[in-house]
Amino acid sequence: xxxxxxxxxxxxxxxxxxxxxxxxxxxxxxxxxxxxxxxxxxxxxxxxxxxxxxxxxxxxxxxxxxxxxxxxxxxxxxxxxxxxxxxxxxxxxxxxxxxxxxxxxxxxxxxxxxxxxxxxxxxxxxxxxxxxxxxxxxxxxxxxxxxxxxxxxxxxxxxxxxxxxxxxxxxxxxxxxxxxxxxxxxxxxxxxxxxxxxxxxxxxxxxxxxxxxxxxxxxxxxxxxxxxxxxxxxxxxxxxxxxxxxx
Length: 247
Known about the structure:
The chain is built from 11 helices and 10 strands. A hairpin with a 5-residue loop joins β9 (about 210-215) and β10 (about 220-225). By secondary structure, the chain is an alpha/beta fold. The protein has helices at about 40-50, 50-55, 75-80, 90-95, 100-110, 115-130, 145-155, 175-190, 200-205, 225-230, 240-245; strands spanning about 1-10, 20-25, 30-35, 60-65, 70, 85, 160-165, 195-200, 210-215, 220-225.
């Protein structure tokens, strides 16, 4: 589904490579957790998967990322939007329409999806995320968790094969965060959607993933089973830290 081959990247005017010789592969239907401290490169790696790096951010890019056989160097984000959908941490910053229904349709309109297919996909997305009762609501009247679910529904309506989420719960309270992550896991299990989730709060997301990619800040990535990831990160969830302390 996605192949990352010897990728290295440095931002414009950056003093060092944020990513350094990374090689990984994402299998269809896999749920991968990106973990690591702030500044370790989690968001940068996530943005490589849909071409935002290097097309939007510029900088020095080496190696290649293949998404469903498409080289991201030759395909800008718009040309990858039907395969990779990306959701960012600030829901308000990525919503462009005033009404929920219009927002979910907007991505399909940009890609020229036929009207009949649009109607069908709109209903599917509303149902999958439990948003049917909110379809006529103004986006600015929704809670943070509801806005984040609308952002995910907008991406899903395009029918991507991979969903990339860059710290989607960072501005949500614990209950809203759990609601959003539970919805993401259900999409992974029920639809076979591949998921890449960048998340600081491992106690929220660790149990959802099939494996983890740990970024320590030196530009490299280590692929680990989730249990080992939780045991080795310098900021383990409280329960994992307690378990380690008592052996």
